[in-house]
Amino acid sequence: MVLTLILLAAIGVILLAERSVEHLAFAIATLFLSAAIISFFVGDFERAIGLAALLAAAITAASTIKHDYSALKLTVTDMPLLFAGTVPFFISQYPRAVLIVIAGAAAFITAVIATLIYGAGPPVTLGASVFLFAVTLICVVMAFRLSGGGIAFQRIKAQRRCFYSTFMASLIDPHAWRQAGGLTLSDIANDPLPLMPAVPARSTDTPDIIVIQHESIFDPRIFGLPVEPAVEAFLSPAHGLHGTLNVDIFGGGSWQSEFSLLTGLSSASFGSNAYTLFKQGAGRFHSSLPHALTALGYKTMLASSCRRSFLNYDEFYRSIGIAERIFSDDFPPPFDIRRFETTNSDAIFLEAAVAAFTKGIAGDPAPRFLYALTNFNHGPHDRSLAAPGQFETQRAFAASSLPDAQYAEYYARLAETASTWKRLRLALAENFPNRPVLIVHYGDHQPVLAKRIDRQLGLPDDARRAFRTFYAIEALNIGPDRLAAGRGADLDIAFLGTVALQQAGLPLDPIFATRASLLEQCRETYFASSSLRKRRFHRTLVDLGMIDIAPGVQRGRYLPTPTK
């Protein structure tokens, strides 16, 4: 009788964890395989099944929390991230969630101890445990294959279901356990794709290019929320190209979006290495937007709102071709880093970044590329960072459409960014009336707040909504016939650098020309696309030494020369 009740409770845990029948058989099979393994240590089925159910509940709880903050479920490849600086960041940013995790961990340990002490049942023989292990192992293998294997679980990684089965599938998926001494590129074919011919320039002009990554900014209209004209002009400039941008991340990990924009690759293609690409990938990527621009005579500059010591930023950006790298602790007075770091205000940072850019172009006819990384709208949004006494009407406007103080704070910060850029754009136009400039704005990811908005609005389920931000491309001193305007196609961030080159009218080398040819096939889903040409293109990049994936190997580098 007791064993029956434990079995029913265990299956109940699995039903709550899965919230779907799609992979229910696999989840139940792995539950009993876990129980079989545990029975070798505890000697009875009652405690073995009870402990397996507790483990399933703990995995589900951890995966649910991760999904709330990253829009992706927990897998075994997330384990190395615990040692990659994510824990201190999570503690500092989301202390309430950390308290919940600590309380949950304490409850789990207490339940395990109680089960071990008070839950013993009739002892079972070693033969019975071996038999159960063999039977459940066969069932797990069969259920895993019938479910579609590891790729089937990867496809639903962003969906709010199958929490337990997704983690257990990652445990037995051989791709999750590959040696990480080099880099593993998951979407790669065996045969290379011949490169397209270089595309010549559409104009003799070489405009300056400013790319601004706007931290945690998304278009509220993705959720059906209205925006005011000033914010609309920022997100959708009247005479520019704008649209929805698909990114690989949610809630954090901005460097993965930076990587995708600059290399034209999806960070998701590198699996568990995606989070640490700035460290493990330094010196491994030899085709990039900065390298292509340098070949065209551009001077390249990074302006980061982080300190030089952050992650491996300085080394990685040097390795992909950005010659001048300015961090928040490098800006000269009147920039005050202590004052800046109290809010990470765009009004302070963007003014300093644009000042460094204009100082560089004054009296220098060489075209310049500026990549600016902001940090103003990063969560949490339960504290007021927008300029005191300002943007209160914007805050009230947001609250009228969604009565949530955190969303109102997000919108107030967005309004401050839009106002700051409007002022700086006007100054650029006035001070450099004869200098053409292409400006690209984009959001690196949605903040955790977006999940809260989604729940409050009760929108239909859409696993991809959490990975949509915005892009906007505008110009100064460039004729309207040169720049496409209006609503553009939805884009994946891996294509945004290529589209920027096209909009600037610059030539495309064979690699960028080939990537541009993939736009129609992949468009807004670069990593998720099943395109064989994309996978063959990746093989070409590896074979040419543009991506070094082997441990300690520096391949010969092919350096295509654009048609000028």
Chart the SSEs and their pairings.
Blueprint: H1 2-18, H2 24-42, H3 45-70, H4 86-93, H5 95-118, H6 126-146, H7 150-155, H8 163-172, E1 208-214, H9 229-235, E2 241-246, H10 254-263, H11 277-280, H12 289-295, E3 299-304, H13 313-319, E4 324-326, H14 337-340, H15 346-361, E5 368-373, H16 392-401, H17 405-431, E6 437-443, H18 449-457, E7 468-476, E8 486-487, E9 491-492, H19 493-504, H20 510-517, H21 519-522, H22 532-543
Parallel strand pairs: 1-5, 1-6, 2-8, 2-9, 3-4, 3-5
Antiparallel strand pairs: 2-7, 6-7
Helix pairs in contact: 1-2, 1-3, 2-3, 2-6, 3-5, 9-17, 10-19, 15-17, 16-17
Describe the 3D structure.
- The protein is α/β, with parallel strands linked by helices and 564 residues long.
- Helices cover 48% and strands 9% of the residues.
- The chain is built from 22 helices and nine strands.
- Strands 1, 2, 3, 4, 5, 6, 7, 8 and 9 form a nine-stranded mixed beta sheet that branches.
- Helix 1 runs parallel beside helix 3, helix 2 packs across helix 3 (45-70) and helix 2 runs antiparallel to helix 6 (126-146).
- The longest helix is centred in the last third of the chain and has 27 residues, at 405-431.
- The chain is globular.
- The chain starts with a helix and ends in a 21-residue tail after the last helix.
How many distinct beta strands? 9
Distance between the termini: 81 Å
Give helix % range: 40-55%
- Which residues form runs of ≥5 with pLDDT under 50? 553-564
What proportion of the residues form beta strands (DSSP E)?
Answer: 5-15%
Average pLDDT reading: 91
- Tally of individual helices: 22
Outline: globular
Largest sheet: 9 strands, mixed
Q: Mind telling me the C-alpha Rg? A: 26 Å
Helix/strand/pairing category:
alpha/beta
